[in-house]
C-alpha cells in the first residue's frame, strides 16, 4: 500500500474498516503485521506498487489504475465481465495484474492539456511537438495508437509549469477538480485515461483463498460507503405504509418487540433497513409521516452482499 501522499490515509482507513488492523510500531516503518497472521503490509510509493506485485515481492497492491498502466502491466478486469485491456506496452514477463476491486477513491483523469490561448487545440496538433508528463509510457502508447509522434519529456511533478517555461508545448497530467489546470491557464485537449484506486493481484494468486478473503473484505467496505442503517419502531397497522417508504435492499427487516413475557404487547414491530445516505433526510420525514417513531440512524462499517 502507498507509504505516503494522498493515497496513504484513505488506504489505512480502508484496511481498518475491512477488519485488517495494521500493527505499525513506527511512523516510517515500511512493513507491518496485521491482525491476520497471513497478511503482512508493505509500504511503498504509489508508482512502484505495480512493480512490487508483478515481481512477486507482494501478492496484492493498492494503487491507482494509472500507475498500473504506467508500469507496462497487462491489466485484466475481473468480476464485471469486461474485456481485459492493455496499455503502456507489452507485458514482457507475462506478469499481468488483475484489477480485483474498484476502491472508489483517488478518482482522477489523465488528460492531454495545452495553453488556453495557444496553437494546440486538438490531438493532431501535438505531432512533432513536445509533451511533458509523469506518465511517459501511457503517453507514448496513447500517441502511438493514433500515429502521432511528439517528443516526450519526463518530469516528476509540477507538470503544469512546463508549457510556461518553454520545456513543453503540451502536457499529459492528472486532473480531478480542474483547479491546477485552470490556474495555470491550460485547457483539456483530450482524455487519455480515467483512474481510481484499485486492489490489484498478480494473475497467478487470484485463486488463492486468502486473496479472495481480502477482496471480499474490501468490497464490503466499498458497498457500505454512502449507506446508512435505519432502525425504528412501527405500529403493526402502519407496517405496509412504512415498507412503501423504504423499498431498501430486498426490503426491510421486521422484528417483534418482546414485552415482559416475551410477547409483543405494544402492537409495534422493530423495522431495520439500509438506506442511501443521500435519501436519509427525505426517508426520515416520510417515515415519521406514516407513523414510525424512535428512528435511529447509524453508519455501516461493512456490507457483505
Ligand atoms: N488530484 C488528484 N485527485 C485524485 N487522485 C489523484 C490526484 N493526484 C493523484 N491522484 C492519484 O494518486 C496517485 C498517486 O499520486 P502521486 O504519486 O502524485 O502521489 P501524491 O499522493 O500526489 O504524492 P506526491 O505527489 O507528493 O508524491 C496517482 O497515480 C493518481 O492515481
Ligand atoms: O485537478 P486538481 O484537483 O487541481 O488536481 C490535479 C493535480 O493534483 C496532482 O498534483 P499533486 O498535488 O499530487 O502534486 P504533484 O504534481 O507534485 O504530484 C496532479 O499532479 C495535478 O497537478
Ligand atoms: Mg501527486
Automatic annotation (TrEMBL):
It is found in: Cytoplasm. Residues 45-215 form the ATP phosphoribosyltransferase catalytic domain. Pathway: Amino-acid biosynthesis; L-histidine biosynthesis; L-histidine from 5-phospho-alpha-D-ribose 1-diphosphate: step 1/9. Feedback inhibited by histidine. GO terms for cellular component: cytoplasm. One of its GO terms (biological process) is L-histidine biosynthetic process. Gene3D superfamilies: 3.30.70.120, Periplasmic binding protein-like II. One of its GO terms (molecular function) is ATP phosphoribosyltransferase activity. InterPro entries: ATP-PRT_HisG_long, ATP_PRibTrfase_cat, ATP_PRibTrfase_HisG, HisG_C, N-reg_PII-like_a/b, N-reg_PII/ATP_PRibTrfase_C. HAMAP family: HisG_Long. Belongs to the ATP phosphoribosyltransferase family. Long subfamily. Catalyzes the condensation of ATP and 5-phosphoribose 1-diphosphate to form N'-(5'-phosphoribosyl)-ATP (PR-ATP). Has a crucial role in the pathway because the rate of histidine biosynthesis seems to be controlled primarily by regulation of HisG enzymatic activity. This is ATP phosphoribosyltransferase. It comes from Halalkaliarchaeum desulfuricum.
